[in-house]
Amino acid sequence: MNTKKIILKAGNTSSQYWQDLWHYRELFYFLAWRDILVRYKQTAIGIAWALLRPFVTMVVFTVVFSNIAKLPSEGTPYPILVFAAMLPWQFFANALMDCSNSLINDSNLISKVYFPRLIVPASAVIVSFVDFLIAGMILLALMAWYNFVPDWRILTLPFFILIAFALAMGAGLWFAALNVKYRDFRYVVPFVVQFGLYISPVGFSSSVVPEQWRLLYSLNPMVGVIDGFRWAILGGESKLYGSGFLLSVALVVIVLATGIWYFRRMERKFADVI
Predict the structure, then answer these.
(1) What are the CA-CA distances from residue 24 to residues 10, 230, 259 (Å)?
(2) Which pLDDT band, with edges at 50, 70 and 90, does 14 fall under?
(3) What pLDDT digit, counting tens, does each position of 125-146 carry?
(4) Above 70 in pLDDT, residue 200?
(5) Measured distance CA(274)–CA(271) in Å, rounded
(6) Of 160, 131, 135, which is closest to residue 233 (Cα–Cα)?
(7) Can you say how many angstroms the Cα of residue 26 is from the centroid of all Cα atoms in its chain?
């Protein structure tokens, strides 16, 4: 009796792979919605956690860097200066943490059925983006409290959100793939997030960095992302360091491109090693 062996695998070409992503879009919606529900299920204050964490961090940074260190605020209330940076940073940090563990958390699904694995970390980024949108309500409340009205630059904010999304996705793909092969990365990612918070201009303006070090400082791609958010939201005296911003954007493109490349390269082995 002849038997046929059926092998399920991704498309042989890149175009077929992206077609597979569109074909499995309903799975993407399901995973994202499931993760949103799980994140706040059986919590005492529910979705308010997305507001509480960045708000408390903003208060601490305002006290330390404004009241104690007396750092400049670019002509805007210091809480708004800090929170304009907290939004992209919290989004990036949450996305990186969620992406790095996404494949491990869905290991049963990955080992049993074929679908483009890129859907799993992408859905994790979407969940973090929902938190980003919720936290944005705090920024609106701060603007109302201080009677702060942004100028025309606020119209450019979607462009900087896109850059933040690309960086979160690219870095998330790197750590998601590495975490499958090397489980040590579950300890590396929290350290990267904590260290990144200290070296990124979240609690202070990057303008305090000496001019001769600004370009080197921009090798941290979050510097360009945060500066872009502040330039769009604060307006007025807020300035964008052109060379450093272009360097950060170039690094974001590299991180995203190489993240997709490495993830695709390792994807075929996930089911075997996970």
Answers:
(1) 12, 37, 21
(2) low
(3) 998 999 899 899 999 999 999 9
(4) yes
(5) 6
(6) 160
(7) 23
User: How far is it, in rounded angstroms, from Cα 128 to Cα 130?
Assistant: 5
Counting residues of the chain whose pLDDT is more than 70, the rounded percentage is 91
At a CB cut-off of 8 Å and minimum separation 6, what does 34 contact? none
**By the 8 A CB rule, do 227 and 201 touch?**
yes
Instruction: Give the pLDDT score at 67.
Output: 83
Q: Which two tokens stand for residue 23?
A: 């074909």
> Which residue type occupies 191?
F
Closest CA to 82 of 227, 202, 230, 223: 202
Sign of CA dihedral 194, 195, 196, 199: positive
Query: Can you tell me the distance from the alpha carbon of 67 to that of 63, in angstroms, rounded to the nearest whole number?
Result: 5
As a whole number, the mean pLDDT across the chain is: 86
Residues 253, 208, 144: CA angle, nearest 5 degrees? 80
Specify the DSSP element, H or E, that contains 21.
helix 14-23
CB proximity list for 37: less than 8 A, separation 6 or greater: none
Report the candidate in 205, 267, 180, 251 with the shortest Cα–Cα distance to residue 73.
Answer: 205
The CA dihedral of 231, 232, 235, 241, to the nearest 10 degrees, is 20
Q: 264: exposed, middle or buried (C-beta count within 10 Å: 0-12, 13-18, 19+)?
A: middle
Q: 């997709």: which residue's tokens?
A: 260
Spatial separation of the C-alpha atoms in residues 222 and 264, rounded to whole Å: 25
Per-residue CA distances from 130 to 95, 115, 165 (Å): 11, 24, 12
**Amino acid identity for residue 48 in this structure:** A
For the record, the structure tokens of 24 come out as: 């499995």
Run of H or E including 32: helix 25-40
